[in-house]
Each structure stands twice: as structure tokens, then as C-alpha cells.
Amino acid sequence: MHLIAISINHRTADVALREQVAFKDDAIRSANVDLFETKSILENVILSTCNRTEVYAVVDQIHTGRYYIQRFLARNFGFEVEEIKAMTEVTVGDDAVRHLLQVTSGLDSVVLGETQILGQIRDAFFVAQEEDTTGTVFNHLFKQAITFAKKAHNDTDIADNAVSVSYAAVELSKKVFGKINNKKALIIGAGEMSELSLLNLIGSNVTDITIVNRTVSKAQQLAIAHDVKYESMEALPQLLAHADIVISSTSSDTYIITDHMISSIQSQRKNDSLVLIDIAVPRDIEPDINAVQDVFNYDVDDLKGLVDANLKERQNAANEILQRIPAEIDAHNEWVNMLGVVPVIRALREKAMNIQEDTMSSIDRKLPGLTERERKIISKHTKSIINQMLKDPIKQAKELSSDKKGNEKLELFQNIFDIEAEQAYEPKKKKRNVATTSQIFSFE
């Protein structure tokens, strides 16, 4: 039994390649089942997001398991196996556990500390569970990883500081206003950065949002997609008179918002604060506007300073989380090692209790006149003797879980007590007969 993780991510493949090796939502279930039916695979979970496609598997042999997983990916996405090998990162054993813990807690994401991946890992695990492709090991390990990530996010500030420009723009607005859910927001532009800013505003419960763009149809399309308002660029002066937050990101060569434009609407604003955030390069907002009373004007350099400071804070939190991972790996290994000990302890207890039951049956035959109370007292004391006798052997058996020669010593332990334990790890039965790698070892 070996643990393996095969990852295609932002470090191993560019976005054009990652787009080609992503499972669609409706294909994940059948993909899990197909992989599970593959030779060498004992358990599996498939994760597929916009930034990574990963296969986690329990395999009977490392090199064959790795090959069959890579072949599975190649066949699904129309690549050669060698092409998949070139874009995959492979980790095994403790390194695979470490990889899962880092991914789940957001330490391996494009945006350090992002929390969305935790939900994606959880969903991937639930899907695999529902399709019956997880077993003893993954049912324990993925729950451990999810619990670890939740605790890491709660105990540190890893996800509290903005590290993207669009998110920082919204966070900067909060520093001026405090709560912004009741503020009027104006987004100038309809490109990717504008949409990210829109999503961050919506995520902060801002509902009064208007999009303005030189091409009205693009503003309309974006507005309809997110259920907000849109206007033409001609309406900009009037919209500025009533806006609280303005985020601008266009490709204009000239200023969209000028000092004259802001001065002309000041009388309509009644000294209300106006936050102007310019995330365009070249700039959309004239720099000197910040001299106007109650107008806060920030450009991309201001945001970069905030992002850099926050990224440093996130990195400090990430380092704290990384220091906790070795203990989690040790805990997982201890649990795996105990898999071999528990059946032995169970067999020892069962044999001892059978002896106690046989003894009680003999007592019943030889002393048929015992009252129910007397019988209960004798049964209680014979069980107490057995428990006291088993205490030290069970303690010794548990200590064997961390012994380098634990398997040999456990076998000797069973011989001494004349017991036969169940198999420590029982692979899940395949839905159809599939030859194992010990029977077929071919690399076609």
C-alpha cells in the first residue's frame, strides 16, 4: 500500500495546457470510477480546478501506479504519456501527504492563502466517496487534511489580507468607510480587472453597483451577468456626483476622470467622501485630484504597497502553517501504523473473552444453583482478571506500531498468543474483475 499524488498545476504547466487537462464537472464522477477500475489503483480522489488537475491515489506499487495514472490522464485528454509526464509533479508517501496538506490550506495556490481550494478539495473528496472510490486510508486522510486547513485558517491571518490588486481596491475602500455594503459603487471599464473588482464588491455585500464603459454593449453584458446596473460613458459626471467608490480600469490613453470633472460636482456631493481607485496603466484618473477635500485618490502603486505588505503578512502566516505540517504527517503515519496493530489487539481480546465465556459456561454447569447476582459478580471479576492480564501485552502491541521491525514482531506476538489477526488493510473490491499488477505487468 503506497500513497501517491500526481499534480498538474501553475508551476508545471501554463494556462493553455491546464485548460486542456481539466475535467468538466459532469465528467468527474465517471473519471473517478474509471480510474478506480484501473490496474494498481486501490483508492483515488480526483481534483480539477481552473489552476490544477490532481490525482491522489493509494496504489499497490509506486512505479506502476504512477504509470497507470499518467496513462489515464493522457487517454482522457488526448495526450501522449510522455507529454503528461512532462507536465506532472509526482509526490509519494510523506511528500504526498505534505502536498495535500499544503494544497488544502492554500499554501500551493497562485494566490497564497486563498480559501476557495479548501471547498474544492472537500467537494472532490465527497464526490469520490459517493462513487465509492475511497476507502480506509483516504476516508481518514482527507478528513484530516480538511480539518487541518480549517484550523490553520482560523488560527492565522493567512486569508485576511488582500494580495490581488482588485481585492486590495475593495479592501482600501473599507479602510476609508468601514462598512461598504450600503455604499454606491461605480466601475469604469468592462475588462477582466473590472470584473474581478465587481466580484469583490459583490462579495463584500455591495448591491448598488453601476458599470460604465465606452462600448456600452460590453458594460451591458457584464452587468446582466452579475445582476447590476450599467450606463454609457456620457453619464459619468452625473454618476460621480452620487458615487462613494469608483474603481477604474480601462485602456484609455487619456484621463477618464479629471480634476475639473471632480471640482464641477463638489457642490452636489455635500462633503461626502469619494474614494477613487485607479488600477489602470496608463492611469485613468488625474493624479492631482487628491488635493480636493474629502476625495481619496489611489493609483496602482498605492495598491501595490498594500498588496506587498499583505503578502508579507500572509507569508508569515504560511510559515507558521508549514511548521505544523510535520506533526500532521507524523499523526497520519502513526494512524497507518496502528492499522496493523488494531486487528492483532482485537484478535487478542476476542480470544480472551472467548476463554472467559467458556469459563462462565463451565461454572454454570458445575454450580447450577448460583443466583443471578452471584453469577454477575463472578463474571465481572473474571473479566477484570482478563483485562488486567491484557493491559501490558496490549501496551506492548501498540508500541510495535512505531518499531522498524514492527511487522516481524507483530507476527511473533501472534504466534506467542496463538491468534490470527485480520489483514491490516483490505483493498476495496472493484466493480468488475481487473487483473492486478502482480498478474499483469505491461507498459503498452
TrEMBL record:
Top-rank taxon, per record: Bacteria
Pfam families reported in the protein's UniProt record: GlutR_dimer (PF00745), GlutR_N (PF05201), Shikimate_DH (PF01488)
Binding residues annotated for substrate, in chain numbering: 49-52, 109, 114-116, 120
Span of domain Tetrapyrrole biosynthesis glutamyl-tRNA reductase dimerisation: 325-419
MF (Gene Ontology): glutamyl-tRNA reductase activity; NADP binding
Catalytic activity: (S)-4-amino-5-oxopentanoate + tRNA(Glu) + NADP(+) = L-glutamyl-tRNA(Glu) + NADPH + H(+)
Subunit structure: Homodimer.
Family in the record: Belongs to the glutamyl-tRNA reductase family.
Name of the molecule in the record: Glutamyl-tRNA reductase
Species this protein is from: Staphylococcus nepalensis
The gene coding this protein: hemA
